[in-house]
UniProtKB/TrEMBL annotation:
Keyword Transmembrane: no
Annotated Intraflagellar transport protein 122 homolog TPR domain residues: 601-982
IFT122 first beta-propeller domain: residues covered: 1-321
Protein name: Intraflagellar transport protein 122 homolog
Principal place of residence: other
UniProt-listed InterPro entries: Beta-prop_IFT122_1st, Beta-prop_IFT122_2nd, Ift122/121, TPR_IFT122, WD40/YVTN_repeat-like_dom_sf, WD40_repeat_dom_sf, WD40_rpt, Zn_ribbon_IFT122
One GO term (biological process): non-motile cilium assembly
Domain (IFT122 second beta-propeller): residue spans on this chain: 330-594
Lineage of the species this protein comes from: Eukaryota, Metazoa, Chordata, Tunicata, Ascidiacea
Residues of the IFT122 zinc ribbon domain: 1039-1083
UniProt source species: Ciona savignyi
Length: 1223
């Protein structure tokens, strides 16, 4: 086998043998393929770092490049046979070396760059960064080349051509994380690979020692490239990249043929003429032999990437595969644990109880590492001493702490190569054990004593003692357990069992001995009596607790057993061997790792507890149990009146409250009190187990204590049970306390219940109501007697507040309070229910209907409401309600609303007049009255606003007109009754002011004079005084412009008219615009007898006369003359003067001819419903546009009306929503 190579991912193993390349599956040695492309022996193989290509070189001078799918893709040649080749680790560059030249080739190159070299190249290796290539020459020279092939360093070695360099390798100090755990999973079966000629089942290497705890992070200085060189001068040397040698040559006693780094460069594996494969530290210290076969020289070695498999190719064609594992070498003294690392280091660590999980791979600062530079074979620790046996000496270290730094200082060396099975260090001695012989040396290596025993020694344990006189416990193969003192030549037999001893341990106080025999049984003996105390099977190792005499643990068969005294052991799953048991912590060695396992001692503690062995349970608890375990222990002890343990336990968990209890009980005991039941009662009371406590108190004859306890707890009902029935006063007292507590408590529900129980319903209801407990409120209300009106009223009050109206109504019903019930329905606007109630009890109808109408009015449903009343045949009700509403509005000075309501009222009266003949006259009278009032209040609203608010939207003329209109309404002969509510003074005041400013001095003077006769609010008085003084400087007449003209007779009327709103001459009533209150050019006319309204309307509509406006348009150049013509021609005009002076009002009466002559656009008809007749008006000045509301029939200047409708969306007087506007 000339060469072997792994694919970087470890999935292929290439083997060069003969002129073939054989590919194996390394997992089971299956042959994958045989590649036959070379015509001569294949010497070398090399896989590229990325695993996509590999190259082979052969004696046939060819280099062949293959893909990982095993197809050859390229071939080039050298002049001589190819000796070695290597892929650059960072690029696809391939170095191929022949006898007298080497080539550098990369896929992008067309040709191979070849460099001549004077001597045969035997080996080559790239640095990890791919910058340099080291060539080992047959002449013993090492040439370090750049990646371009230039020679950078040439190392001439002293051996010269007598020491051909045969193998070299750069330490590829791999930067990626070390593989920490693979050594722990090497339970896999050894791998078998079929070689070319034969196969070997390899057992792998199990050197004597060891541990695989070797993955400390790389130090920075380690990353420097180190070149390992083997030559046939039988040396192993190391060089830096700069050519300087590191250390000295290590002598080999064979010709090395192959060198490889193993396990991330921590070790070297070298094979050669000695037919062995040896393991060295990376510094070159020999560590052990991996393979030793009869298959001839070792020619090549390959380490499977990322594993601990080493494959070796031998001269005779055999390939062996080895699994490398290291034994554990370690020593433990209490929690001081020393172990071997990387085979040559010793690490000492405190398995400190503060660290929960010890991960020996992590450097947490609790470790001390000692570099021994040699294979560590044995380690022993005792107190501050550490003994390490190396290949040729024993070094004794002493632990020292200097300047806060802890370290081990070598104090003695015994330069002697010992063969021994066991090494033990004591304070002043080193004891070596070889089979049945035990030798004691001084620290200087002077032999002091030998013991020859009857059988091989299987186990030694130093059990302590004075310095220099320590005792040791020995377990022999023949079953003997001996005790040997370092200074005593005579062993003492302690026991002898039938089978050989594997492990043993002595209890803390040295009264008991645990022995594990070869039958995996743990025997525990009393040392004094030699009596076998108990046995446990399935035990491979055992350890006594170092803090508790009765506890031990043992391991075996995947379980850990913890045993306290003679109780059954507690089992739990655990792999590994127990090696120590400290408190609640068990040290366990599993595979190659030491673990500290925390095992709560709860179970054994409870075993003692169950037997009332409190002291023992406490001892166990001290080793480490949970808080709740402590709690249980303390309570159990307390319960059993074991105050000593209870006190200790309470102290431990810092429960001061219970400590006080224990203290007080103990004090009472001292004073001679001895009623256990009483103590028990106190204990249970402390635990809030009141029922128990009360029972104990009663048993002790102290029922009063139970009563007091329950009273303190406010558990009055329970307290009552313990009150002696013979004493009624006590019972009362209890009730008093209860009530008192209830008052101050923050538990209102309880308090309420108590008040109820005490018959204090009102107090209870207040609490219940304020907390909003509807259900409770209702329960109470239902239970109450209906005579208890006060309580029921309270219930109802709260229910209403809580909006539980149905319940509230129920309460009112129970009380028989119909009015309250109805008012409730009204308040919650449950009108249907309210109406239904009023139906039965009509005496409350005002209580319902008025608010109902009010509500409807507020919600703009006034008409609906009225309609509803009418529908229900409640016309008089509707009227009544409306009257009430109107009165309210007046009383509240909402004159605008009052006007509106009066208008509504008038219309209702008209409706009634139409339907109910008996009331017709009365209703028509009312109609007129209400119409008038509607107008008065409507108008007064403006005056009120003017006097109440500093600004008014009305023009001075309008206000003047309004005031005058109002004055005429309320002072004239037609003034209705009931307007006394309108402040006359305000109207006069407005009139006085406006009159003066407009030049109506006479009127103003009249108003001021009138005002002086009235009692006025103070705020007006000064203004009026001032006004009446200044008015005197004005002329005693009114401006003629202001005086209204009668459109019928053309008489100019005075501003103040004794007749009210009609012409002083013809008595024709003025028609006012209901916005500006100017007189409109309208004259009312009536129909001749015999003409019905229908006919009149028809006649007007069928008027043959074309509209006047057209004529205006045609003849506007001479309007004046045209009008004159019209006046003369118009038959209506002719009838205007049909009045008699000084007499009563005689309306203009028209016949059919006149009607026919009228223009439809000039006529306004108030189409009153029956029994009223229509009212007809003719516009005498058609150029003045007039509009009439078709609902209330009020007249307006068309422009004003449109504006108001636009602003209010309805008629200002009757509030009818304007259809016109909507259009
Ligand atoms: Zn007149
Ligand atoms: Zn109207």
């Amino acid at each position: 086998i000339y060469d072997i190579a792994f694919k970087p991912d470890g999935t292929q193993l290439l083997v060069a043998t003969g002129n073939k390349i054989i590919v194996y599956d390394p997992t089971d040695g299956t042959l994958v393929q045989t590649l036959r492309a070379h015509k001569d022996t294949v010497y070398c193989l090399g896989y590229s770092k990325d695993g996509k290509r590999f190259a082979s070189g052969s004696a046939d001078k060819c280099v062949i490049i293959w893909t990982d799918k095993l197809t050859g893709i390229l071939k080039y040649t050298h002049n001589e046979s190819i000796q070695c080749l290597a892929y650059n680790p960072v690029s696809p560059q391939l170095a191929s070396c022949a006898v007298n030249d080497f080539g550098l080739w990369a896929p992008e190159q067309k040709s191979v760059n070849k460099h001549k070299i004077s001597n045969r190249i035997t080996c080559c290796s790239w640095t990890s960064d791919g910058q340099y290539l080291a060539l080992g020459l047959f002449s013993g020279v090492i040439s370090i080349r750049s990646k371009l092939g230039e020679e950078k360093i040439k190392i001439e070695r002293p051996g010269g051509s007598l020491s051909p360099v045969w193998s070299l390798k750069w330490n590829h100090n791999i930067q990626f994380a070390p593989f920490k755990h693979f050594k722990r999973s090497i339970d896999a079966p050894n791998v078998v690979i079929r070689g070319v000629n034969q196969f070997y089942r390899t057992r792998g290497f199990r050197g004597q020692a060891i541990i695989g705890l070797d993955s400390s992070p790389k130090k920075l200085d380690d990353t420097n490239d180190v070149l390992t060189v083997c030559d046939w001068g039988q040396t192993l040397s190391f060089y830096h990249l700069n050519g300087k040698q590191i250390g000295k040559d290590a002598k080999l006693d064979y010709d090395p043929c192959a060198v490889q780094y193993y396990d991330q460069g921590k070790y070297l594996v070298v094979g050669g003429s000695n037919k062995k494969t040896c393991l060295y530290s990376k510094e070159g210290y020999f560590l052990g032999v991996i393979s030793d076969s009869s298959s001839g020289w070792v020619w090549c070695i390959a380490c499977k990437p990322d594993s601990n498999v080493v494959v070796v190719g031998h001269q005779d064609g055999t390939i062996t595969c080895h699994l490398v594992t290291f034994q554990t070498v370690h020593g433990l003294y209490r929690d001081c644990y020393a172990f071997r690392q990387n085979l040559t280091n010793v690490v000492v660590q405190r398995l400190n109880s503060d660290i929960k999980h010890i991960d020996l791979d992590e450097d947490d600062g609790s470790k001390l590492t000692i570099k021994c530079n040699d294979l560590v074979k044995r380690i022993s620790v005792y107190k501050d001493k550490l003994a390490v046996q190396l290949s040729d000496r024993i070094v004794i270290y002493q632990h020292e702490t200097k300047d806060g730094e802890s370290k081990y200082v070598p104090v003695n060396k015994i330069l002697k190569k010992f063969e021994c099975n066991l090494l033990v260090v004591c304070s002043e001695n080193i004891i070596l054990c070889q089979e049945s012989k035990l030798s004691c040396f001084s620290m200087d290596g002077e032999k002091q004593r030998d013991w020859s025993l009857e059988a091989n020694i299987r186990y030694i344990k130093v059990i302590g003692g004075p310095s220099g006189r320590e005792g040791m416990l020995l377990g022999l193969k023949n079953g003997q357990v001996l005790q040997i003192f370092v200074d005593n030549p005579f062993p003492i037999e302690m026991l002898k069992i039938k089978s050989s001893i594997r492990c043993l341990d002595l209890s803390m106080n040295r009264t008991k001995l645990a022995i594990i025999c070869d039958n995996s049984t743990c025997h525990v003996y009393d040392i004094e009596s030699k009596e076998l105390l108990f046995e446990e099977v399935n035990a491979n190792s055992v350890a006594w607790n170092t803090q508790n005499e009765d506890m031990l643990c043992y391991s075996g068969k995947g379980h850990l057993g913890i045993k306290a005294a003679g109780f059954p052991s507690q089992q739990r799953r655990m792999n590994g061997f127990v090696v120590g048991y400290c408190g609640s912590r068990i040290f366990c060695l599993h595979v190659h790792a030491m673990r500290a396992v925390d095992v709560p001692q709860s179970a054994p503690m409870y075993q003692y507890l169950d037997r009332q062995m409190y002291e023992e349970a406490y001892q166990i608890a001290c080793l480490g149990v949970t808080e709740s375990d402590w709690h249980n222990l303390s309570q159990k002890a307390l319960e059993d009146l074991n105050f000593n343990v209870a006190k200790k336990a309470f102290t431990r968990i810092r429960n001061l409250r219970y400590l006080e209890l224990v203290q007080s009980i103990e004090d009472r005991q001292k004073r001679g009190e001895n009623k256990t039941d009483l103590f028990m009662g106190d204990i249970h009371a402390y635990r809030s187990e009141f029922a128990e406590a009360a029972k104990y108190y009663k048993k002790a004859g102290h029922s009063q204590k139970a009563v007091d306890m329950y009273t303190d707890l406010r558990m009055f009902e329970l307290a009552k049970e313990y009150v002696e029935t013979t004493d009624p006063s006590e019972r009362k007292q209890l009730m008093a306390k209860q009530a008192n507590w209830a008052k101050n408590t923050n538990e209102p529900r309880e308090a309420a219940k108590m008040y109820l129980a005490a018959g204090e319903n009102l107090k209870a209801l207040d609490i219940i109501g304020e907390n909003g407990w509807t259900d409770m409120l209702m329960d109470v209300a239902r239970k109450l007697d209906k005579a208890d009106r006060e309580s029921l009223t309270k219930c109802a009050y709260y229910l209403k507040q809580l909006q539980q109206y149905a319940y509230c109504a129920e309460v009112f019903n129970k009380m028989g309070d119909r009015k309250a019930h109805i008012l409730l329905q009204v308040e919650i606007k449950n009108w249907d229910e309210a109406f239904a109630l009023v139906e039965k009890h009509p005496e409350f109808k005002d209580d319902v209907y008025v608010p109902y109408a009010q509500w409807l009015a507020e919600n703009d449903k006034f008409e609906e409401a009225q309609k509803a009343f009418h529908k229900a045949g409640r016309i008089s009700d509707a009227l009544h309600v409306l009257e009430q509403l109107t009165e309210n509005a007046v009383n509240e000075c909402r004159f605008n609303d009052a006007g509106y309501y009066y208008w509504m009222l008038s219309m209702q009266c008209l409706d009634i007049a139409a339907e109910r003949t008996p009331k017709k006259v009365e209703m028509l009278k009312k109609f007129k009255k209400y119409q008038k009032l509607a107008e008065i209040y409507y108008v007064y609203h403006s005056i009120q606003r003017y006097t109440d608010e500093p600004f008014t939207s009305h023009l001075p003329e309008a206000l003047f007109n309004i005031a005058r209109f109002l004055l005429h309404c309320i002072s004239g002969s037609t003034a209705p009754r009931g307007v006394s509510k309108v402040p006359f003074s305000a109207t006069l005041y407005a009139l006085a002011k406006q009159s003066r400013s407009l030049g109506a001095y006479k009127l103003s003077r009249f108003a001021y004079d009138k005002l002086h006769t009235l009692k006025l609010p103070m705020r007006f008085q000064d203004l009026i005084d001032l006004g009446s003084v200044t008015i005197r400087s004005k002329p005693y007449h009114d401006s003629e412009d202001l005086q209204p003209m009668c459109y019928r007779c053309s008489t100019t009327n005075p501003l103040l008219n004794a007749q009210g709103s009609s012409c002083i001459n013809c008595h024709q009533p003025f028609v006012y615009s209901f916005s500006s209150f100017e007189v409109l050019p309208l004259v009312e006319f009536t129909l001749e007898d015999g003409i019905s309204d229908e006919e009149a309307c028809r006649l007007i509509d069928s008027s043959s006369k074309p509209p006047r406006s057209d004529e205006w348009k045609d003849n506007d150049r001479d309007a004046q003359s045209l009008q004159m013509d019209v006046v003369e021609e118009d038959p209506f005009t002719a009838r205007l003067l049909t009045f008699e002076g000084g007499g009563d009002y005689v309306p203009v009466v028209v016949n059919r001819v006149v009607l026919r002559s009228l223009s439809r656009g000039d006529v306004f008809i108030r189409r009153w419903a029956a029994p009223l007749r229509f009212q007809y008006f003719k516009n005498l000045m058609p150029e003045v546009a007039v509009a009439m509301c078709d609902s209330c029939f009020q007249m307006f200047h068309a422009d004003d009306y449109e504006l108001m409708v636009l602003q209010k969306q309805c008629c200002p007087f009757c509030r009818k929503v304007s259809d016109a506007h909507e259009d």
